[in-house]
Amino acid sequence: MARYGLIGKNIAYSFSRTFFTYKFEKEQRPDTYQNFDIQTLEDFPAILKNHADLRGLNVTIPYKEAIIPYLDKIDKEAAAIGAVNTIKIQKDGSLVGYNTDHYGFAKALADLLPLRGKTALILGTGGASKAIAYVLKTMDFEYRFVSRTPAALELSYKDVTSELLSRYFLIINCTPLGTFPNTEAFPPLPYQGLTKDHVLFDLIYNPTQTEFMKRGFAKGARVSNGMKMLEYQAKKSWSIWKS
Predict the structure, then answer these.
(1) Are the CB atoms for 179 and 126 separated by under 8 Å?
(2) Where are the domains of the chain?
């Protein structure tokens, strides 16, 4: 029997445990998957020490970038992205970091193509947004980051006008705004500028219809939540753990 799990903060909402528990039951595997909800990464070494049967971990908000110094090795794609969401624990106990978010997003996005134009706004600048940018770059998209505290070359939410939206047709929410239980929250955008030519992709999957998505749908935009992305990246994580 092997143990797998999820490292994150305030992750009771997460679907990963349900996904893998169902998978193990369906395949009649004795393996288990559990949440490791920690307030600081200083607790991470203790998890490894206290669970010698751990073989793999997923990593979510807010630790996808901060986890990297704890790892012994990092896959080249995860290094290029600058974020890790999957850890394989080798037989010798060493930790290898991977990123399967980019794979999950690319597969999920394929179902929404083509767009009117290959332009995108990425809301948020955390670990997940880096994986999204990696995919868009490989697909030759023109994209901009939008942040509450923009760095050089990034946009603030005040910069996002209806006129700007008329030139960016894919909008990806990589922020936690709207995640259960704070389902009334949403990114502050001029939603009146959205049209049927827009696609709103929300990495959030709980709730299945976020306020961000609802406001886009009301203007005729196509919308998607993050469930398919999660399923694709979870399957990719499993293939890494079992390789």
Answers:
(1) no
(2) 3-99, 102-228
Q: Which CATH superfamily is domain 3-99 in?
A: Leucine Dehydrogenase, chain A, domain 1 (3.40.50.10860)
Active site residue 64: yes
Output DSSP code: residue 206.
S
Catalytic residue among 26, 64, 137, 228: 64
Q: In this predicted model, what pLDDT tens digit does every residue of 90-105 receive, in sequence order?
A: 999 999 999 999 999 9
Q: Using a CB cutoff of 8 Å and minimum separation of 24, what contacts does 115-119 make?
A: 115/169, 115/170, 115/197, 115/199, 116/169, 116/197, 117/167, 117/169, 118/142, 119/143, 119/167, 119/168, 119/169, 119/170
Task: Judge whether 3-99 and 102-228 match in fold.
Answer: yes
Mean pLDDT of 125-146: 96
Per-residue exposure over 22-45, b if at least 16 CB sit within 10 Å of its own CB, e if not: eebeeeeeebebebbebeebeebe
Q: In CATH, what number does 102-228 get?
A: 3.40.50.720
CA dihedral 231, 237, 240, 243 (to 10 degrees): -60
Whether residue 190 contacts residue 215, with contact meaning beta carbons closer than 8 Å, is answered with: no
pTM for this entry: 0.91
Of 14 and 158, the structure prediction assigns the larger pLDDT to 158
Q: Using an 8 Å Cβ cutoff, are 1 and 32 in contact?
A: yes
101 in Cβ contact with 61 (< 8 Å): no
SS3 120: strand
Phi/psi of residue 5, each to 5°?
-170, 180
